[in-house]
Specification:
about 325 residues, alpha+beta, Alpha-Beta Plaits, about 10% strand
């Protein structure tokens, strides 16, 4: 099996011992309105303020220009067209018009700056926050600084969530999925169909603990976990369901692929017989059930457990598939 790049918190790209990633429902750490357009009563949005400023500035400038022109027309009617005072007043009016135009230009530039450096970046930030993404570094220096601070906290929060989710879903000793994650995975994939459930016991594990001690027993469990995760595909899920019990959920398999399942099981058994690591050899008893008919997880487990019971009755160290004999026992 090809070697995989270690990645502690992304199982689909991580070491085989962790299996495939579980994508289940999770709550977000932020409590945001469902739609960015909604805001609390009494609050005012920046774009509303901006629209008001534009309207007021435009109206004020137009009114000033109109008043200047009316004043100039009135004075021209009152004064003699050739008077020196009229020429001086005309120059003063022209200067007022120029100053008013400059003022209007300054207001327009200021509004464009506010829109480009504050309003648009803030609107973009709102969208990214609702999509649970990092913020782009755009806008004014202050907004860029806030975005960097937010992104640093966002990354730290993501890492902590990944660490917490990993601890919640994985067995501390073996790194495999734990019982809770197994139940969710089985329920999810069992309803979709085309899976196989392998229910596994480590043979005579109590004797190993009694003979070699619990430290060796723990190493045996870790070895079993490593062999199970490494012996199956990245799309399969290796789990430790408790004690010396394990399970593997194989996805996209049908009953006609029993030989494929057997070949992978044999590879695992061969790895456990290898004593080059100075650990005692162990064997596994395995019951297998298929879910082509989209059986629920609990029923699939009972089927695999029936097959496992036959293996134990036959002396352990083997594999059995749920068949008609097991079905007859169910009806007895």
């Amino acid at each position: 099996m090809a070697e995989q790049t270690p990645n502690k918190y992304n199982d689909r790209q991580g070491p085989a011992v962790y299996g495939a990633a579980y994508h289940g429902p999770h709550r977000r750490s932020t409590d945001l309105p469902e739609k960015p357009g909604l805001h609390e009563k009494g609050s005012v949005r920046l774009q509303t303020i901006n629209a008001i400023i534009i309207a007021l500035a435009s109206v004020t400038s137009l009114v000033l220009l109109a008043l200047i022109q009316r004043k100039q027309a009135f004075i021209e009617r009152v004064l003699d067209a050739d008077s020196a005072e009229l020429a001086i007043l005309r120059q003063m009016m022209q200067r007022q018009q120029i100053l008013t135009g400059i003022l209007l230009l300054i207001v327009v530039v200021e509004i464009i700056s506010v829109v480009g450096l504050i309003l648009l970046p803030v609107e973009e930030y709102i969208v990214h926050i609702h999509e649970n993404k990092m913020l782009p570094l755009r806008g004014s220096y202050e907004l860029r600084y806030l975005a960097k601070a937010y992104n640093a906290m966002f990354e730290e929060n993501q890492l902590r969530n990944e660490e917490l989710r990993y601890k919640v879903e994985h067995d501390a000793l073996t790194g495999l999925y734990n019982r809770g994650a197994y139940e969710k995975l089985l329920e999810e994939h069992g309803q979709q169909g085309d899976i196989a459930l392998l229910w596994i016991d480590v043979d005579k594990f109590k004797g190993i603990n009694d003979t070699y001690g619990h430290d060796v027993g723990d190493k045996i469990l870790q070895k079993v976990a490593h062999q199970l995760a490494g012996g199956f595909r990245v799309s399969d899920y290796a789990c430790r369901t408790g004690g010396d019990e394990f399970a593997v959920i194989m996805t996209d398999v049908v009953p006609e692929q029993q030989q494929v399942v057997l070949s992978r099981i044999e590879a695992v058994q061969a790895g456990l017989r290898d004593v080059s690591d100075d650990l005692p050899a162990v064997t596994l008893s395995i019951g297998v059930a298929f879910s082509k008919q989209r059986r629920e997880g609990e029923l699939l487990f009972k089927m695999a457990d029936k097959a496992l019971y036959r293996v134990k009755e036959a002396g352990r160290n083997g594999c059995a598939f749920f068949n008609d004999e097991d079905r007859d026992r169910e009806t007895e």
